[in-house]
Structure formats: structure tokens, C-alpha cells
């Protein structure tokens, strides 16, 4: 078995993965609360990279673009319990509970370390995954609302995230691209996430950067990779995926073509 997913409902799942690490670019449609049982995940966003291991619990905001790389680790599978906190579920919750604090989207990943109450809530879901249709349908609703209540008790500012129901519209292209250039997406996806058609995205991009998207993206990704290898003493094999390249050979070719020497020769200095 390489990959298996079990569901309590569409909003609560248990994933079990064995095999080679896999990477994907995603935008999270819903807030996601994740409990790590084993393995490792890197979440690469514009300003920082988060690494999560066994025992970690974290909350990822919705409408956030990220590169996600999942790894089995220490001879154990990549195994997590994930709970989607959907807009509909949160609207129902906050119709009965007064939100506190400023209602604004918070652009960060929340990390909860060794919190017994939250871990107990997530761990209590494990027996339910094998019950299937025998599980009472309202159990999932109860467990999600329990998790929301615990999150609010842990962090008084989390309402600013969970109780904000606005959807993003057309956004500043320059700011978006400077933050997300390492994400390996199609022009259609870049256009979608900036609120533009492909043709409008290309036109606005040319106006903002005076070059084509592909040339600019390749240059920015190579500069990022060069920085990590030269300044952070990281190996090319550990850098190219995070910088937005699909394979090592293409990265090495583009790197040498740009800088006049291979990434390996830079790493060996």
C-alpha cells in the first residue's frame, strides 16, 4: 500500500502514505487543522517554510498558496488526521457564538505544540475511521465544534481568522508575484489566483515587469536557489524543488546557463 485515505465525513480524513516524497502546489479552500502522527511535511510559503513532524498540530488558513512536500520518515509512513473548517461550518458556529478581536485575515500558519486538550480532540477521532455508516452523522459536527472551541481557548486572536468570511478578489499582481514566484503553477493558475483571465494576467504582467512571466519566474527561482546554495550552504538536491523546479537536471542546466557554473560546483566551494 502506498496511499490510503479514510473519511469520517468529507471534512475529516485520515491519510496514510508510504513511498517517495511527493510535492504539490495548492491553495487551501478551507482552513485545515492537521495532527501529525508520523512522517514530515514542509509547507513553503512566500515568507517562510514550515516543517512539521510527529506530534505537531497546525492550522493552515484558507485561500493561502503553498508548496507542500510530504515525506515518510524514520521508517514510518506519512500519517495525519486533517479536519477541514469550512466556511459554512464556521458561519453556523459564529451565528451562535460572539467573535472577539479584530475581524481580519491572518496570513500565517498557527502551530500548536504539545497542547494536550487539542491533541486529545484529534486523537479521539482515530476509532471513528473504521465505523463507516455505523457512525452517527452528528458526531463529526460535534468534534469539529469541539476543535473550534479549543482553538479559541488557546489563542484569543484566532477569531480574526475563523470568523472572517470575505472572499479574495482581484489583487495587486506585483505584490502577489514577488511573494509566490517559487510556486510551480501554470499561467492559468497564476491568473486565477490574482483574479484575472490568462490574457489579462499576461498583459498586466508585461506592464508591471517589462518581460514575460516565464523569463521572470525562471530568473527569480534561480536567484533564490543561488542564495540558498551560496549563503545557506544547502545542497542543490535539497534546494531545487523549493525554488520551483520540477527536476534536478533541468534546474542544473538553467543554473549553469544563467551563472556560468553548475550548482554543484558552487556547493563544493
Automatic annotation (TrEMBL):
<protein>
    <submittedName>
        <fullName>Helix-turn-helix transcriptional regulator</fullName>
    </submittedName>
</protein>
<feature type="domain" description="HTH araC/xylS-type">
    <location>
        <begin position="171"/>
        <end position="269"/>
    </location>
</feature>
<dbReference type="GO" id="GO:0043565">
    <property type="term" value="F:sequence-specific DNA binding"/>
</dbReference>
<dbReference type="InterPro" id="IPR054015">
    <property type="entry name" value="ExsA-like_N"/>
</dbReference>
<keyword id="KW-0804">Transcription</keyword>
<dbReference type="InterPro" id="IPR009057">
    <property type="entry name" value="Homeodomain-like_sf"/>
</dbReference>
<keyword id="KW-0238">DNA-binding</keyword>
<dbReference type="Pfam" id="PF12833">
    <property type="entry name" value="HTH_18"/>
</dbReference>
<dbReference type="InterPro" id="IPR037923">
    <property type="entry name" value="HTH-like"/>
</dbReference>
<dbReference type="InterPro" id="IPR018060">
    <property type="entry name" value="HTH_AraC"/>
</dbReference>
<dbReference type="InterPro" id="IPR050204">
    <property type="entry name" value="AraC_XylS_family_regulators"/>
</dbReference>
<dbReference type="GO" id="GO:0003700">
    <property type="term" value="F:DNA-binding transcription factor activity"/>
</dbReference>
<dbReference type="Pfam" id="PF22200">
    <property type="entry name" value="ExsA_N"/>
</dbReference>
<keyword id="KW-0805">Transcription regulation</keyword>
